[in-house]
Structure formats: C-alpha cells, structure tokens
Amino acid sequence: MKKLLSILLFALLLLPSMTMAQTDRVRRPTGTTGTTGGGTKGGTKGGTKGGTKGGTKVGTKGGTKGGKTGGTSSAPRRATTPSSSGSSMQNITITANGVTFTMVAVQGGTFTMGATSEQGSDAYSDEKPAHRVTLSNYYIGQTEVTQALWQAVMGSNPSYFKGSNLPVENVSWNDCQQFITKLNQLTGRKFRLPTEAEWEYAASGGVLSRGYKYSGSNDIGSVAWYSDNSGKKTHPVGQKQATT
Asked: What angle do CA 140, 160, 97 make, to 5 degrees?
C-alpha cells in the first residue's frame, strides 16, 4: 500500500433540513490514498494535533472534488440504489466573513460500504465485512476546508504549510468542533463533520459511483496527493479530478 502523507483534511457536512445530526467518528480511508485532490474512500482519522492519516478533498457532484471522473471505462460498478426522495437538490454557495465556499448536493441512496471487491488486498481488516448502508440526502464540502475559510472564521491559521487556498491542517478534532460552532453562528446553518458512511458514499461517487478503486479513478495519481507525488507538502484544493 502506498504511504499516505499524514495531515488533517477536514470537510463539512450540511443536512437539507438544516438540523444538527449526531457526529459519527471518521476513520482512515478504505484502501488508500493521499491528501488534497479528488478524494478518497473512507475519511480522515480525526483527533490528534498535527493532523491525521487519510482522506482528501470532499465534495462535488455526487461525491468529492471538482473536475471530471478519471479511470478506465471497464471499472467494476458498485451497486448503488438511489433514494426515492428524488434529485432536485442544488449545490449551495455560502459566504462567511467574506470567504465563499460551496456545499455539493449528494443524493441519498443505499450502497455497499467497507472492503468492496475493487479494494483487493488494500482493504483494512476493520473494513470487513462489506455491508449495505442507506443514507438520506445531504450536502458535503466541495473541497477541504481552506486556510482562508479557517482564518475568516477563527481569526488565526495554525497550519504548518501556509497558503490561503491550501487545506487547513495542524488542527485537532476539538479545534474542528470549535470552528463548526463559530461557522454555524456566522451563517445561521447547522454544519457538522460527515460520518464515515457519508464520507465514503460521497467519495465513491454516490448514486453515480463507477466502482473505482480510488475516489474517482483507478489511477491514484490522478485523484490524490500522496507520498510519491506530493513532495511531502500540501497543495491547493481542487487540483485533482472529481469523484464523478
């Protein structure tokens, strides 16, 4: 398995009803992948100062990060059943203290979560057995939370690698909760962290999933920054292919 760059890449989630839902723990991604880019199956292991291993860019159409889907047309398809609630949701653009960000609409559905067949030997033991999960509609951040947004909300920037369009890092789970509380106060909305299931569903493409090994492609380099291509530093958000 390819070594991951260890940083915290943190995403926001918003429910259509604008109500707060219980926050589940967020684990490392199924299979692999890197950091800023087209996303990765699973999530980030939240908690320790200085960052955590795992996931990347969250968001875009039906899943994560901006751009078009990569990979081969022969990739296996992950069985996904759309929810009956329809797909009339639209992306939402929100501004907080002058910084604008996008929440991408994700149509709910039923999908296979965990160590699916395309993961092969890269799947972790705690991702087994694969199982069916049903999710309602929700919104997820189009990219990781940027340093510009963190600075606008918190008034400081704890990141080691500095840049307004770089993902924020060097923050703890508690720091993220404080950020979300302040963001909710500024916007009048009810953001929270995505659950592991919500992250994995979005990262795999939601109802548009094509069953790629990585999030949006079978080629890790086209959708993620990781140890072999990152130069051991973070990169501006949105540079890699989208999940779909």
From this structure: 50
CA 106 to chain centre: 12
Tens of pLDDT along 86-142? 557 899 999 999 999 999 999 999 998 888 888 888 888 888 898 999 999 999 999
Neighbours of 15 (CB within 10 A): 17
Measure Cα distances from 173 to 53, 104, 107, 144, 180 in Å: 13, 23, 27, 15, 11
pLDDT at 192 over 90: yes
Higher confidence at residue 15 or residue 190? 190
| Contact in structure between 149 and 96 (CB atoms under 8 Å) | yes
Nearest to 213 by CA among 5, 29, 7: 29
Paired sense of beta strands 13-14 and 131-135, if any: unpaired
Residue spans of alpha helices (H) in the chain: 147-154, 173-187, 196-203, 220-223
Q: Do you find a cis peptide bond into 194, omega within 30 degrees of 0? A: no
CA distances from 62 to 24, 52, 164, 209, 210 (A): 21, 25, 26, 8, 12
Q: Distance (Å, rounded) from C-alpha 244 to C-alpha 237?
A: 16
Backbone angles phi, psi at 102, to 5 degrees: -115, 135
pLDDT tops 70 at residue 223: yes
**Strand-pair category, 13-14 with 99-106:** unpaired
- How far is Cα 167 from Cα 110, in angstroms, rounded to an integer? 30
